[in-house]
Specification:
By secondary structure, the chain is mainly β. It has one domain. It contains four helices and 40 strands.
Length: 449
């Protein structure tokens, strides 16, 4: 090979080497430091709360530090509600109302979860520590001549850590919706003392009554999963309880102790110590708002008791739906219709248990009628839908009872039984939902999972 050829090859290699070095140098200018993988323990997952101290904030949660906000964002209209995004702002609402402001017709909306005290309840629903350890919540509207007259929308968020030895979150409220309570200890109705409309509210707290002490409007699409000392939903109700669930443990009745209105399309899946739905189903006129009982006919219709009645008492009466029916007002009929009871019954004296209603009190009216029809109960209850109380009924009082049957679980799972329930529901009217088969084949209400 000639010297000229060697020189050409050398120049080619020199050019290629220079180009490679240039490319490498360009890459070095753009290269970042190696990415370090985060320690898994340091990552806060979206569905987990960090170990925050009271007063700390994250994007969807506010922790109480005892402060009271000075102003609300928003104008209080339906389209621009006052915003409750912190414990301080909820404290401002309580402080304003308890100082005399009513916020009549004005709108509030939560935009964060709010926590006051931490770790209030143990796994059994009992108060975990000594009462002196917790900051006490004063109910909104608890003062003399004070009341909250606005509309409160929880926005699907949760309030936790309330300690209320006497009273409720709200002393009274005309409209409450979309709110959940957790890890709280409440000495009356969980959400309210006196209420109008409560929609889509869910209680996991320990309370005396799972939703409200007294209701004169509508309780709809609500649920109680908490531990209650007297009733799963309310003490008294003059309105309608619709598509509502009790799945809590109740030392009392599953739904409403004294029912003047109607429970419909609702279910008890909880453990109760006495009656699946109500203690008294009655129409005592002097107790009605505006002294007008005819607006509030007493009824239990199209409901399911699939929970458990559990008690060690040997002297207590037990009933799948109601203890006493009491008819006291002229021309006001009362109804227990198209209900299903296949609850477990774990009591000392099963002979003292009845599938539907235990007794009827002596009526004072000869112009009203009591209807107990198309009710079905599992054979584990005594084989009568009610105790022998016909002697309580006066000769002049109208009385109708038909097609109340004791069935086996196998019979309740048959398609023909489901068809019968749905035919009965259609006859009751458009306000009553359909039935469907649950996972085990037994009937459940259409809205239930």
């Amino acid at each position: 090979m000639t010297k000229l050829k060697y020189l050409q090859n050398f120049l080619i290699l020199l050019f290629v080497g220079s180009a490679l070095c240039a490319v490498q140098a360009c890459g070095d200018d753009e290269e970042d430091e190696p990415i370090q993988e985060p320690n898994e323990e340091e990552v806060v997952k979206p569905d987990e709360e960090p170990n925050k101290k009271p007063g700390d904030e994250n994007e969807n949660h506010s922790y109480d530090n005892g402060e009271i906000a000075k102003i609300f964002r928003g104008t209080g209209t339906e389209n621009d509600p006052y915003i409750i995004s912190s414990a301080a702002e909820l404290r401002k609402l309580a402080n304003d109302v308890n100082s005399g402001m009513k916020y009549k017709g004005e709108y509030f909306r939560m935009t964060k979860n709010i926590t006051f005290n931490r770790n209030v309840l143990d796994e059994e629903g009992n108060l975990k520590g000594h009462p002196s350890e917790y900051d006490v919540w004063t109910p909104i509207g608890a003062g003399d001549n004070t009341s909250f007259n606005g509309i409160f929308d929880g926005g699907g968020f949760t309030i936790s850590g309330l300690y209320i030895p006497s009273g409720s979150l709200f002393a009274n409220i005309p409209t409450l919706k979309n709110l959940t309570l957790k890890d709280s200890y409440i000495g009356s109705g969980a959400f309210a003392g006196n209420s109008g409309t409560i929609i889509n509210c869910h209680n996991y707290a320990t309370a005396v009554y799972g939703i409200t002490y007294s209701n004169r409007g509508l309780i709809e699409k609500c649920s109680n999963y908490g531990r209650c000392s007297k009733a799963g939903i309310a003490f008294r109700c003059w309105g309608v309880v619709n598509e509502t669930l009790n799945a809590g443990i109740v030392d009392g009745v599953g739904f409403v102790d004294q029912m003047f209105g109607e429970i419909r399309n609702s279910a008890n899946l909880g453990i109760v110590s006495s009656y699946g739905f109500s203690h008294y189903l009655h129409d005592e006129g002097e107790l009605y708002p505006d002294n007008n009982p005819h607006k509030y006919p007493a009824r239990i219709r199209n409901c399911l008791n699939a929970g458990k009645i559990k008690s060690e008492s040997e002297k207590t009466a037990f009933a799948g739906f109601c203890y006493v029916i009491s008819s006291l007002v002229d021309d006001l009929d009362m109804f227990i219709e198209n209900n299903v009871n296949y609850a477990e019954c774990e009591v000392a004296d099963k002979e003292n248990t009845v599938g539907i209603v235990y007794r009827c009190a002596q009526p004072r009216s000869n112009k009203s009628c009591i209807y107990i029809s198309n009710n079905y109960y599992i054979e584990t209850f005594s084989h009568i839908p009610w105790s022998d109380y016909r002697n309580w009924l006066s000769d002049v009082n109208k009385w109708e009872a038909e097609n109340n049957r004791c069935l086996s679980a196998k019979e309740m799972k048959e398609d023909s039984f489901l068809d019968e329930l749905n035919a009965n529901a259609r006859k009751l009217g458009a306000d009553y939902c359909k039935w469907k088969k649950g996972k085990g084949g037994l009937p459940i209400l259409e809205w239930m999972e």
